[in-house]
Amino acid sequence: MSRKNVLLYSVLVSALALPLLNCGGSAHDATEAYYLVTVNTKIPYWQNAAAGLQQAATEFKVKWETVGPETYDPQAQKRAFQKVLSQGKPSGILVSPADPEVLKPEIDAAIAQGIPVITIDSDAPASNRLLFIGTKNYDAGQLGASVVAKQLQGKGNVVVFTMPGQANLKERLHGYEQVFRGYPGIRIVEVIDIKGDPTIAFDRTTQIVSKNTPVDAFVCLEAQSCPEVAEVLSRKQIKGKTVVAMDTDPRTLEAIQKGLIAATIAQKPFTMAYFGTQVLDMLHHRKLPSLEINWSQDNRSPLPSFIDTGTTLIDKDNVDAFVTTTPGK
Length: 329
Prior knowledge:
Blueprint: H1 3-21, E1 33-37, H2 44-60, E2 63-67, H3 74-86, E3 92-95, H4 100-112, E4 117-120, E5 132-134, H5 137-152, E6 155-162, H6 167-180, E7 185-193, H7 198-210, E8 217-220, H8 225-236, E9 242-246, H9 250-257, E10 263-266, H10 269-285, E11 306-308, E12 312-315, H11 319-325
Parallel strand pairs: 1-2, 1-3, 3-4, 4-5, 5-11, 6-7, 6-8, 8-9, 9-10
Antiparallel strand pairs: 10-12
């Protein structure tokens, strides 16, 4: 988290927590409940986020739950969000929209009911969500592109794996494209929608290397594709390809150690959910005049519109240290 965002957080904590210190007794009760609504709930990335939610809720001695489909299914995520609303009035909701247009009506409905909603990891800026906590995704794309450009020495064909519906992945791709504009010899020759299914990345990579298609680098804008790319390259004993991944799936880190993946860009899902739950808790106890005010355009807003939780580039030089010192990865 940047120094600026640390300062914003400190101010937010001070402003919202002071009334709690003066009210006497416990600041929490057994009825409070905080939810994380996402997709692909069983992958390591979202397991780490769930751990952040659990940690914050445990400290507050309140209820918590992570809900959503185990696959990439925006409509199932929408139904999970609706179910949370139908079961009572949550104290607050964290949501990572798989498709921001699909989730917008539900987010707005929750806000209209006075339920604080914060987006994490992937934003829904057209909705009435209160703020976004996550990564500067455009910058993350630029960081990955700089690795690719250096590895390719400014020349080569690149294949990108993504899911075009997600706002955060669009921003990462934009970051890659912007950097590559400075390298006329680098071309993105194919952008592949994995549709939430990593086997698509496995199958397409297999086709590319089996047909000797002139591809020099593989870029993954989400967590699931690059372990599959690395698996194909390992099985086929293919050398000399540049692979840049996203996030810290254990298979990704192992592939970096084996030299199959050049680098990955690590986000902080635990921090997003842990910090997001703290902000939701403060908003629950110190209610804003209205949740439906456009706080992002209010120059006296008590809320920042975006909090950057930061990224880390992991490559062969620091992967062993990261694996050794990071619990849960």
